[in-house]
Amino acid sequence: MSGVAVGHEAPAAAREGHPAPRRRHRLRLWTVVAVVAGAIAFLLVEGLGSALDYFQTVDQALAHKASLGTSSFRLEGVVVRGTVQATTTGARFRLAQGGRSVAVVNRGTPPQLFQPGIAVVVVGHFAAASSDVFVSNEIMVKHSATYIAAHPGRVTAADGPTR
After folding, report:
1. Fewer Cβ close by (within 10 Å): the C or N end of the chain?
2. Can you state the percent helix, strand and coil of the chain, rounding each to 5?
3. Which of 102, 90, 114 is nearest to 57 (CA)?
4. Is 56-161 a CATH 1.10.1740.10 domain?
5. How far apart, in whole angstroms, are the C-alpha atoms of residue 57 and residue 124?
6. Distance between alpha carbon 31 and the CA centroid of its chain, in Å?
7. How far apart are CA 122 and CA 114, in angstroms?
8. How many CB atoms lie under 10 A from the CB of residue 87?
9. DSSP line for 12-46
10. Which 3 state secondary structure label does DSSP give 84?
11. Are 62 and 132 in contact (CB under 8 A)?
12. pLDDT on residue 23
């Protein structure tokens, strides 16, 4: 039996400095696990980061208008009394917070609880990067007494506290 390896000699690949096939398989597996874990961690951090920034107040949005541009975001404020007008496509009104206000053009049906003097969150974007008009496609009413007690400075209308 000439030329045939007998006994427990290492495979030729291992003798030449190459890792054994089983070892390469484990290395690939751990590399894939590390990449997937890294991707999941990245998504969690990004998701939690954006969740912490649930909405912009009127003051914040106006201060960051240049960076927000026409990208979509959530805007919170109090519906200014005397400014609500029904339109054929939704409603027009002003949203105020901290002494500043924004004109909102809503395209859609406002919720039943929508009314002047209450805190709302509208979803949409500025009409243009330099505009003070916010184009909205959704209105979410903030109507709980618990919320008002927890955030008294956020739910104060220009003409007094909301109830």
Report:
1. N
2. 30, 30, 40
3. 102
4. no
5. 13
6. 31
7. 11
8. 10
9. HHHHTTPPPHHHHHHHHHHHHHHHHHHHHHHHHHH
10. coil
11. yes
12. 82
- With contact defined as beta carbons under 8 Å apart, do 134 and 127 qualify? yes
Structure tokens at 77: 């404020």
Dihedrals phi, psi of 143, to nearest 5 degrees: -125, 5
Per-residue tens of pLDDT for the chain, all 163 residues: 555 555 555 555 555 556 677 888 888 888 989 999 888 888 877 666 554 557 889 999 998 888 888 889 999 999 999 999 999 999 999 999 888 999 999 998 888 888 899 889 999 999 988 888 999 999 998 755 555 566 565 545 444 544 4
Domain chopping of the chain, boundaries: 16-52, 56-161
> Tokens at residue 132, please?
């003070």
Cβ–Cβ < 8 Å for 68, 87: no
pTM more than 0.90: no
| CA nearest neighbour of 77 among 108, 110, 55, 49 | 55
Residue that the structure tokens 């990245």 belong to: 42
Residue type (1 letter), 87? T
